[in-house]
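ARCHIVE CARD
CATEGORY: sequence design from structure
SOURCE FIELD: tokenized fold
FIELD CONTENT:
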């Protein structure tokens, strides 16, 4: 007897998708690297520096490959900052003029200008990790330029303040072709109406003359990691152009700058409390007034900050500050632009009426 096979079609059962996982809880503690860890990185990086070379500009030559040869047969590649400096020194619009030129044509024009340029330049360079040249040129500087290198700064901090800096976590360390940025926040937070704000400092430096050595009061909003720099009394905690300074003087300046931060934080926190209670009828206009005159902030970031402040709906001075710093942190990727936006937002906060 043959078994009968059922011909009833199968019915697909609708299966509800699994529920979305709940959003992660906001962080309750600051994270980051220790001073000792960052110190080791800085010292290792400094070991890749080559001795500065002071040469007559007329003795420099460019090769068809785009490298620079120095007296003594040294050959350096150029990083972007050095290339911009070279173009400025020789009066060239590099990308525009050499876009369709061959390597030989470019070298001929640059060498002609080298021979006509008087004076000397100090060339700073890294070792070339790729082995393509003897080094990588970082900048063409005046022979008298006396940089305050990161290694000197961190050596003094390690000697004089290592215990004090154990109370901080470095939330960000960024190296560019021309600047270095070190952001450190204190492990203890301020509570602003339920929001945790960690105070600290932002140290910016340039070993190639692109900026002065500066140490600014810094605040980090823990829930979104936004940063903010505030000048108390209209002054930065430390600001020094690159010139000769004894190690003891440098150490004293750093100790004083970091030591007086807590009293400055108290003033900035009072401004934040007032800013949260100060309404701004047209926050997008406020953003335009803060960022509009800055040559360092692209228009696209200004417009994005306007969109964010209207989207978030916090119509207070604090809301304006948070919109700018959110865009500086999440949309922008250039640490020097972020520095400018956080500083401008901090100046706006410091103008909050008591």
């Amino acid at each position: 007897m043959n078994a009968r096979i059922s011909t009833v079609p199968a019915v697909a059962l609708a299966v509800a998708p699994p529920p979305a996982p709940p959003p992660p809880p906001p962080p309750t503690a600051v994270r980051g690297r220790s001073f000792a860890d960052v110190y080791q990185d800085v010292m290792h990086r400094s070991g890749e520096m080559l001795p500065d070379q002071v040469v007559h500009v007329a003795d420099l030559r460019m090769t068809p490959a785009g490298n620079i040869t120095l007296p003594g047969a040294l050959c350096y590649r150029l990083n972007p900052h050095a290339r911009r400096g070279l173009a400025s020194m020789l009066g060239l619009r590099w990308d525009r003029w050499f876009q369709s030129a061959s390597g030989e044509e470019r070298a001929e024009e640059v060498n002609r200008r080298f021979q006509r340029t008087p004076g000397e330049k100090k060339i700073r360079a890294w070792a070339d990790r790729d082995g393509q040249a003897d080094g990588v040129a970082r900048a063409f500087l005046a022979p008298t330029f006396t940089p305050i290198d990161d290694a000197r700064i961190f050596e003094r901090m390690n000697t004089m303040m290592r215990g004090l800096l154990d109370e901080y976590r470095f939330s960000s360390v960024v190296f560019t072709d021309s600047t270095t940025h070190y952001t450190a926040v204190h492990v203890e937070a301020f509570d602003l109406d339920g929001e945790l704000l960690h105070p600290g400092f932002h140290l910016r430096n340039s070993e190639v003359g692109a900026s002065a050595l500066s140490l600014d009061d810094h605040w980090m909003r823990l829930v979104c990691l936004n940063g903010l720099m505030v000048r108390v009394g209209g002054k930065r905690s430390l600001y020094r152009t690159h010139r000769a300074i004894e190690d003891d003087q440098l150490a004293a300046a750093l100790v004083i700058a970091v030591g007086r931060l807590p009293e400055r934080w108290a003033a900035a926190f009072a401004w934040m409390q007032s800013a949260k209670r100060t309404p701004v009828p047209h926050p997008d206009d406020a953003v335009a007034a803060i960022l509009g005159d800055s040559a360092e902030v692209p228009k696209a970031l200004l417009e994005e900050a306007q969109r964010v402040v209207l989207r978030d709906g916090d119509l207070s001075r604090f809301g304006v500050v948070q919109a700018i710093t959110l865009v500086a942190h999440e949309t922008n990727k250039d640490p020097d632009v972020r520095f400018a936006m956080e500083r401008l937002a901090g100046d706006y906060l410091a103008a909050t009426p008591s």
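CARD ANNOTATION: The chain has two domains: 35-44+148-350, 53-141. The mean pLDDT is 91.
SHELF: design records, drawer C
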